Please model this.
Amino acid sequence: MLKITGVEKTFNPGTINEKKALNGINLQLNEGDFVTVIGGNGAGKSTMLNMIAGVYPVDCGSIVIDGVDVTRLPEYKRAKYLGRVFQDPMTGTAADMQIEENLALAARRGKPRTLRAGITAKEREEYKELLKILDLGLEERLTAKVGLLSGGQRQALTLLMATLKNPKVLLLDEHTAALDPKTAKKVLDITEEIVSKNNLTTIMITHNMADAIRVGNRLIMMNNGKIIFDVSGEEKKKLTTADLLEKFKISAGEDLNNDRMLLS
Amino acid sequence: MEIFTQLLNALPGSISQGLIWGIMAIGVYITYRILDVADLTVDGSFATGGAVAVMLILNGWNLWLAMLMAFIAGLLAGAVTGLLHTLMGIPPILAGILTQLSLYSINLKIMGKANQSVNVNQTDLLISLRWVKEFALHNPLITVGIVVIVLIGALYWFFGTEMGCGIRATGANLNMSRAQGINTSFNKVLGIMLSNGLVAFAGAFLAQYQGFADVKMGQGAIVIGLAAVIIGEAIFSKIFKNFALRLLSVVLGSIIYYIVVQAVITMGLDANLLKLLSAVIVAIFLAIPYWKGQHKAKHMVKAKGGKQNA
Model:
């Protein structure tokens, strides 16, 4: 479903701030794979997701989604294949627009935007039903501005928007990191529910090692722009956080340096 | 008492000007509020609209067709700014200034000289300040009033379509828009075009109203447009929530602006100081939300500090 081959990216090349963010990434995801990604600060986790999404161009390598080479496609054209949820709850939704308008924007992802109605009465009914899944009472507030919602509500809504059109790949960039523990759990539960119901191919970056082990069928660990550990199936289920720390030390030759990860 | 009578006499004229500049202010609203871009092209495109309309009217064109061409000229001016910004990576304010400057030359070329007049005695016009107190269709109050209502209706419809929602989303959140497959560059260009189309359309009305087009007629237009937007929001934002009503509040803001201007002139203010006064008023209104935010932030720090001490 997703095939990344030899992707490299260097930021600020030739300057004192030169940073090799991705150093030859190879990754292949099968349909329905749910991969969790962990790694230290600056390991290249977010950069990898941004490369898939087309936020910046790659230096070399190729990205193929469901047989389509998207390496040279601009971000807005790749959006057709992708669903994305960001770390910052403010990023994924338009605060000045209504809940239903945000959903309607997402429903038109990958389609030409014409002079037809931006939202129809039929859609409103559908959105009402969809929002009920979240169990946050949003179905009663369709015309409320998204800016009035809490961070957790906004992330849940973004998740719904990202999965509204069954994306080929769902990209979750630490989407629960900015939330309080209780809300984070709720959003993660909703994530698992939606992903399994639609059998979505998913990449989820997380700083929570327990979540990384428990959720999904595959786990990868990144360091210095490389994938240093890739485990799936039964072997993954048996992992413990101690194992992960140990693995990291062996592969990277240093202790895991993600402050948030160690605190959680 | 005499001042009051004078004011009352001048009222139809003030409202007419307010309506015409209200169309211009709607254009500013589209860039400044919806697209979140301060577009300075308008100072040039306003005069372009006037120049195009006047020259075509002098050449015997149908009046509404001349207005349409003025609108299209504005669209093109907006396209230039939009492309300077999106294709060449020039910051929007600078892109607008570049277009505005080049339009000065273009406007001179369109008219052949610094100004061109259309005499209402010799040429048929849609509106003229001479008819401002007549009860007839060519009274600017009626003609422009109807046009404003039609425009607001059309914009209300447009910004409810998929395309219009794309422009609104682009202004609201670039990252989210791209993630939802919206071509943000295209939508910025589209929004700036539409804005300048309306501005030029308003310029075409003003040229007929005052009987001439002048290369300097758009000077400071952005400030007047902003003043109208800000006054309209300050007074009506609590009661007007609907998008169409918000556009209406911009036009009402423009009318109020012109009535206030008329009032201070009638009361004896030197008309030369008018632009200074407008700029000061706009600066203060722009500062208020910033000051409010700072005040709030200070308050929160204080509240937190208090807790820690306790």
